[in-house]
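ESCALATION

Customer reports they have been waiting on this structure for their group meeting. Please prioritize. Original submission:
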Amino acid sequence: MLPLLAEYGGRLERRLRTPDDQVEAHLITFPSSADLAAYRADSRRSAAAPLLESSGAAVELLPVRDV
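Update from on-call: job pushed to the front of the queue and completed.
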């Protein structure tokens, strides 16, 4: 659901993949935690959930900070 990011102020900063293409990670930023929550609650994301589940992909949300 990357196309929805901009509607919530989100931005895809980096898209990384392991050399064997088994794992892909997205570094995404939002202006606030409320914007992230609104993005995650979007009904279009919920409607697409079966596609994600059938793909076998796993989603893990990890809050991070600059160091």
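Sent to customer with the following note: The chain is about 35% helix and 20% strand.
Escalation resolved.
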